[in-house]
Amino acid sequence: MKVGIIGATGYGGLELIRFLHNHPEVQQIELFTSSDEGAIFSSKFGHLLTIQDTPLQKIDIETLAHLDVVFTSTPSGVTSTLLPPLVGVGPKIIDLSGDYRLKDLEVFEKWYNKQPAPKQLVKQSVYGLTEWNERNIQLAHLVANPGCYPTAVLLSILPLIKEGLIDPNYLVIDAKSGVSGAGNKLSQTTHYSEMNENFSIYKVNEHQHIPEIEQAIELFADVKTTITFNTHLVPMTRGILATTYAPVINGVSNEQLTECLMETYKDHPFVRVVSSGTSIGTSRVKGSNYCDILVKLDERTNRATIVSVIDNLVKGAAGQAIQNMNVQFHMPQTFGLDVIPLFI
Ligand SMILES: NC(=O)C1=CN([C@@H]2O[C@H](COP(=O)(O)OP(=O)(O)OC[C@H]3O[C@@H](n4cnc5c(N)ncnc54)[C@H](OP(=O)(O)O)[C@@H]3O)[C@@H](O)[C@H]2O)C=CC1
Ligand SMILES: CC(=O)N[C@@H](CCC(=O)OP(=O)(O)O)C(=O)O
Predict the structure, then answer these.
(1) For residue 177, which atom of ligand 2 is closest to its CA?
(2) Domains 2-145+315-328 and 149-312 belong to one CATH topology
């Protein structure tokens, strides 16, 4: 297979290269840039010396049209104009940005403060939460890969909402991310001296992933709800830990909550349910495509604490994108992604 990456020089793009390099069905990886045409990739990223010594190419629709798959890992607002001429002319497209996730264009405009993509394309795009949308992903020309936070949150709460074990009307979700979630651009908030030793909350009640999570709860669990969702920046490079506090339906036990998650994901290689213990952290999934989930009922309050951890750049971005490519091409989901996390 021949694959292309637009935005190869970004964090998501670099992770795509890392995993695609080991993919048994990928023979050729072409890299595209909007800013550094002709540059030898390994001269920009020394860790890829002898691995990716190819030049960066100009983004050109005719060249892209000959590929089997194109991953777009660009800032929001880019693929809404870049992709329309490419959809349907050849390659399957997997977009890691938020441009094709929200079905309501006004909602997109409000939360991203950007012009939306063309309505027809947004309509045909398929939300790429792999474990929950496999059949549609198989048929999709354009996959809208989920956001990093929504991936962590949705995998952990959807089964419990769908099975009616928790009350979806009072969900409070508290999520924390490493700084690579913000991409490779420098900014005041990711500046070392302002981020290091500083645990902060940001976009309070205004995060663009709020409507994405609500939309997916409606799509997959058939429940219309609003959530309280907040995000925090942790002075570390990778990882998301998302904690949801949810009222439990009367009479539901801790065992039922865990069982529900285990049953849902028993045939899914990348979601692991932690069946005992009271601790979980991002190191156990670092560098891997795993999402690990722990649920614990607080019997005093009858609320469940539901915790999930992912690597934002892998299951939250490049890993899930490759998992979706595997689904689209009827390959095992683990192709290219079968690595042990970098625990230490
Ligand atoms: N970082 C994360 O954890 C996650 C990110 N995402 C989403 O994935 C996308 C990529 O994220 P990330 O890799 O972190 O971002 P980065 O900022 O690290 O990289 C984005 C890349 O896009 C390219 N780019 C910038 N502007 C344009 C343009 N106008 N046209 C074409 N290419 C452009 C740049 O490469 P060049 O200059 O070479 O063209 C740049 O290296 C974003 O939409 C992000 O929101 C989703 C989930 C998780
Ligand atoms: C730490 C950090 O800043 N994370 C980013 C996640 C970006 C992302 O995934 O946004 P898209 O919806 O555009 O894909 C944020 O909170 O905005």
Answers:
(1) 1
(2) no
pTM recorded for the entire structure: 0.97
For domain 149-312, say whether CATH 3.10.290.10 is its number. no
Res 198 pLDDT > 90: yes
The residues spanned by each domain of the chain are 2-145+315-328, 149-312
Q: Closest ligand 2 atom to the C-alpha of 316?
A: 9
Farthest CA pair distance, the chain: 64
Cα-to-centroid distance, 127 and ligand 2 (Å) = 17
Query: What is the chain's length?
Result: 344
Q: CA–CA separation, 262 vs 257, rounded Å?
A: 9
C-alpha distances (whole Å) from 105 to each of 109, 148, 205, 226 are: 6, 21, 20, 18
In the residue annotation, 148 being an active-site residue is answered as yes
Range 107-114 contact pairs with CB under 8 angstroms and sequence separation of 24 or more? 107/211, 107/215, 111/206, 111/208, 111/210, 111/211, 112/76, 112/77, 112/208, 114/76, 114/77, 114/80
CB 231 within 8 A of CB 175: yes
Q: 129 and 308 in contact (C-beta within 8 Å)? A: no
Q: Report yes or no: 144 and 126 within 8 Å, Cβ to Cβ.
A: yes
Name the band, by pLDDT with cuts 50, 70 and 90, for residue 278: confident
CATH class of residue range 2-145+315-328: alpha beta
The b-or-e profile of 157-190 (16+ CB within 10 A means b, else e) is bbbbbbbebbbbeebebbbbbbbbbbbeeeeeeb
The pLDDT value given to residue 37 = 97
Q: Are 128 and 324 in contact (CB under 8 A)?
A: yes
The tokens for 318 are 């490049």
